[in-house]
Amino acid sequence: MSSLPETMRASVLRAVGDIVVEERPVPTPAADEVLIQVASVGVCGSDVHYYEHGAIGPYVVKSPLILGHEASGRIVAVGSGVDPARIGQRVAIEPQRPCRVCDHCRSGAYNLCPRMEFYATPPIDGAFCEYVTIQDDFAFEIPDSISDHAAALMEPLSVGIAAVQKAGVGIGDTVLIAGGGPIGVITGQVARAFGATDVLISDIDPARRDLAASHGLRVIDPATTSTEGMDAHSFIDASGATPAIVTGIRSVRPGGVVVLVGSADEIPLSVADIAMREVVVTGIFRYTNTWPIARTLLATGKVELDSLVTHVYGLDEVEAALTGEGTTGSLKRIVLPGVASVPEHDVRARRG
C-alpha cells in the first residue's frame, strides 16, 4: 500500500441531521480482504432514516458513522491471503461480513447471521468515503458493459432477486407488486426475467407508474382500480403501505405467496384470507448469493438500472443527496466519493 495515501475523505454522520466531511485513515485490508477505491454509492432509504432519526429498530447510531452501503469501485490493494492479480479489477460490493460459523451461516442463510457486520449499520462504517475494505469473495468483478452506477445498484437489485426467489416466481406467473419506486421497478424487471408473463405495478404516483411502464411493466392506479381477486400467483410489497399490503393479500390466488419487502410496522391480518386459502405470507431480510445472478441479469440486458439514476452528488454534498434538497422527480440518487461536488446534479439534463 506504499503508493496509496495514508488518509482519505469520509462523510460522517455525527448526530441526527449533522453530517461533516472528515479525514480518516485509509483502511488496511486484512489477510482475506481487498481494499477498494469507491466509485459510486447509491443513497438508500435506510441512509435517509439514520440521518433523520438516528436509528432503525434496534440499530441505533451511538457514535460517528459513515453511511452508504450500495457501492462499486476498483480494487487497489489486497490482503496477504488474496491473489494480487485482483488489483485493478472493477467490482460490485456485497456490503456484509457474516461470521460464517453459526448455524445460519453454515446452513446457507448467512443473511440471518446474528453477528453480521453490515455496511452503514451501527457500528459498522459504510461507503460514503474514498476507500473501503471487504472480504475478497464479497467483491464481485464486473465487465466493462456494467457501469459504476449499475454496479452499485446491484445491491438493491439483490433485494429484488431475493424477493422474487422467495415468491417462487416461475414461467407464466402473474406477479403483483405494490410500489413503483426503485425497488418495485427493479423487482418487476427481475420477475419478468425469471419467467413471469404478467407483471403489474401498483402505485398512486403517476410519475412512478410512467417509470414502470417505460420498463415494459403493466401499471395500475390503486386509487381507481382494485386488484382484489385478480388471482395473482404472488404479491410482493415494496411500498410499506398498510392498505397496499391488505389488498395484496386478497389479490393472490389460493396457495399464493405474499412477500413483504417494505417497512410497514404492523398490519391487520385476516385469518380467513390467509389460513382458509393457504396463502403463504413471508418477508426478506437482505439477501444471500445474489451478486452472481445480478451480474448476469445486467450483462445480458434482462435488467436495466442506469435509467433509474436521476441525481448525482459529490462527497461534500452527501447531506443534499440524503435530503434530495432542490430536486424534482428524484428516483435514485448517487454519491461519487472521488469528487467533492457535482455542479449539475440532475443527470437527466445530460441525457437530453
From TrEMBL:
GO molecular function, one term: oxidoreductase activity, acting on the CH-OH group of donors, NAD or NADP as acceptor
Needed cofactors: Zn(2+)
Membrane-spanning segments: none
SMART domains: PKS_ER
Keywords: Metal-binding, Oxidoreductase, Zinc
Domain of life: Bacteria
Gene3D superfamilies according to UniProt: Medium-chain alcohol dehydrogenases, catalytic domain, NAD(P)-binding Rossmann-like Domain
Domain Enoyl reductase (ER): 14-336
Family as reported in the entry's similarity comment: Belongs to the zinc-containing alcohol dehydrogenase family.
Protein name (Swiss-Prot/TrEMBL): NAD(P)-dependent alcohol dehydrogenase
Organism of derivation: Arachnia propionica
